[in-house]
Amino acid sequence: MKHRCALMLLAGVLGLGIGPMARAGKDPEERYIVKYREAVTSGALRSGRQTDLRVERELPNHHAAALRLTPAEAAAMARDPAVEFMEPDPVRVPVGVIRAKPSGADILPSGTTPSQQITPYGISLVQAKGLPGVRSAGVKVCVIDSGYDLGHEDKPLSPAVTGVDDLLGAGPWREDGNGHGTHVSGTINAKNNTVGVLGVFPGAPMHIVRVFGNDGTWMYSSDLVAALDRCMAAGAKVINMSLGGDAPSTLERTAFRAAYDAGVIAVAAAGNDGDTRYSFPASYPSVISVAAIDQNLRRAPFSNRNNRVTLAAPGVSVLSTVPRGTVSNATLQSPLGSIGVIPMDNFPIPANPVSAPLADCGLAETPADCIGAQGAICLIERGTVTFAVKARSCQAAGGVGALVYNQSGETGPVYGTLGTTRVSIPVVGTDRATGVGLRDAYLGSPVTLTFDTTTFDYDYYSGTSMATPHVAGVAALVWSRHPACDSATIRKSLNVTARDLGVPGRDPQYGLGMVRAKAANAWLDLQPCALN
C-alpha cells in the first residue's frame, strides 16, 4: 500500500506539471500542509524533490508534509485521491515581550548581577517557593523557543538539560542570541543556589527544541508539530510554548490532541494583543492557555481575554535569566551633563564609547525621518511605531546609535525592548525632559554613549510568554511529587485549586484563576494515584 500511495503522490506531482518550465511565470507560492490518507515514505518525498516538488517539512508521524505550491498546483493537489486534506501552513512567532522594571518588588541594583539569590514575586505568588520538586521523578519539561544559554551561572547543565540542534536552521540549542528562550526557561528551572533568581522547579529536567533564530525568525505550524514530535521523543511530559499565531491548523489541533491523549500537558501563551482574539496553539482545548497578571493580581493590559483562557500567572515585570553579556548599564555624556540611560536588548554592547553628533529623527517611523543621521546618534521620540522600527530606521539612515526619549505625559525613562529584532547599533532610553532639552538646544552637538562592560545576566520581561512558564513549571513541580498520577489528574489539580480572580467563576480575563502549586499538591495528596 505504501508503494501504491507513493506512486499516486508522484503521479499527482507529475500531473501538476511541476518543473522549471511550468514555474517560469510569476505565480506566487504559498506554504501548505498536505495530509495524506496513508503513510508517505521519505523515499517518495525524495523522489518528489527530483521532480521539483518543494518539500519544506516532512511529518512522517502524521502522514503529512509541508509543501510550497502555486495556487494552480494547490488546486490540483487537493484533487489528488491520495490527499486527505490540505490547509495553509500558518505562521508561529514568539509572543513578544515588553521590557520594563517593576515599580515595587524585585528591583535589582542597576548594572550588577545579584550576588544573593532573589525570589521573583511570581514564584511566591504561584506558591512554588518551599515546595521542592523531585528531579529524579522523570518529569521532563520541553521548552520550544529560541534556545538556552547553557553556560549561564543560574542554569542547570547537561545531562539535566538536553536539546535538539538546528531543527530549523535556527542555531545550536545551547545558545540563545535572542534571549526569549533563556528568560522563559529560567522561570522554570533557575537553580536554587546563592546567586541570581529562583525558578518554579529549580533544576527541573529539561529538553530544548530551538525553533527561533537570533532575530526571532518565525516558523510555521508544521514546524511546531515537528517540534512537538521532538519533545515527545525526548520523553517530555510538560511542554512550554511561549509562542503563537492567529490562524488555527487542523493538523496542529489533531497533533496536540494526540499528545494530550498520550499523557502530555501542553501549555501556551494566550497572546499579547490585549483583545479577544484567539492565539494558537493556546486556544486548542487540549492545550492550557495562559493569561498574564501583575504582582497585584490584576490582568495585564496586553493579555488576551477570551473563552479559551484556562489559567492566569504572573507575566508583568518578571525577573529571570537572559543570555550572558546582553544587558548592561549605559551613560550619556552631553551638554546637559552625565546622565544614566537605559539600554534596550538585542544589540552588541560596544566595548568602546560611541561618540557622534546628535541628529533629530522625530518619531523615526521610516529612514526618511532620519535624513542627516549618517554617522550621528539619532534622537527619537517614543510613540506611533515600535522601538524595533525606530531602531531599524536609524540604522538604515546610517546612524551609529539611537537615543529614545519618552512621549508627552509619560514620566521616567524609557524601558524598551526590540522584541525579536536585532540591530548592530546601540539603542538606549531616557526621560522626556532630557530628550526635549537636547532636541531644543543641542542638535548637532557631540554626545557620547558609554557602556559598562560589566554586564549582568538577568532582566525584566513582561508578556504572556512570561506567564506561561509559571504554569508549565507548576505542572512539572506537582507532577514530580505525584508521578503515579496521569496527565488528566495533574491538569485537573491545577484547574480546581486555582485562585479565583475577577468575577466569580471562570471568566475571559483570568480563566479559572491563578495557578497555585501548594494548593494543587495538597489536592493531589488526597487522590488515589498519590496512594499507589
Description:
There is one protein chain. The protein is an alpha/beta fold and 532 residues long. The protein has three domains: 2-89, Peptidase S8 propeptide/proteinase inhibitor I9 (Alpha-Beta Plaits); 94-323 and 460-531, 3-Layer(aba) Sandwich (Rossmann fold), CATH 3.40.50; 330-454, Glucose Oxidase, domain 1, CATH 3.50.30.30. The protein has helices at 2-15, 42-50, 71-78, 121-125, 180-189, 221-233, 250-261, 387-396, 432-441, 464-481, 487-496, 517-525, and strands at residues 30-36, 54-59, 64-69, 83-88, 91-94, 98-99, 140-145, 161-164, 206-210, 219-220, 236-241, 243-244, 265-269, 287-293, 311-314, 318-321, 330-334, 337-343, 354-360, 377-381, 401-405, 427-430, 446-451, 458-462. It has a seven-stranded parallel beta sheet with strand order 8-9-7-11-13-14-15, sandwiched between helices. The radius of gyration is 25 Å and the shape is globular.
What are its keywords?
single chain; 532 residues; alpha/beta; Alpha-Beta Plaits; Rossmann fold; Glucose Oxidase, domain 1; 3 domains; seven-stranded mixed beta barrel; 24 strands; 24% helix
